[in-house]
Amino acid sequence: MAKQIIFTDSAPAAVGPYSQAVVAPSGKTVYLSGQIGLEPSTGELVSENFEAQVRQSFANLEAVIKAAGGEMSNIVRLGLFLTDLSKFASANAIMAELVPQPFPARSTIGVSSLPKGAQFEVEAIIVI
């Protein structure tokens, strides 16, 4: 899938692994619900460790993307939710490892709490 990345000097540059905007080609649009760091077999958080939760959240997201017939490169929009924005750089680094370039559009939001005491959640829109 060839995504067109939009960039302008008239808006601030990205402060992480994401694009200012993405134009997706025509195709099937899939809206994925948020994923937290739950181990699929137990339904419990994989760990109390933030980085482990981020990695498991992205693994869960990838499993749903594959079930929809897509792959991580099909992501055009991500939403990240963190209960501690001081861990923003860590989430960025892990995302940069797991999501191929060109990076999707993205927002990151600080929240007071997430289900099951999770520290991180990710949601996505893909076009396949």
From TrEMBL:
Pfam families: Ribonuc_L-PSP. InterPro entries: RidA, RutC-like_sf, YjgF/YER057c/UK114. Gene3D superfamilies: RutC-like. One of its GO terms (molecular function) is hydrolase activity. The keyword Nuclease does not apply. Keywords: Hydrolase. Belongs to the RutC family. This is Rid family detoxifying hydrolase. It comes from Alcaligenes endophyticus. The lineage of its organism: Bacteria, Pseudomonadati, Pseudomonadota, Betaproteobacteria, Burkholderiales.
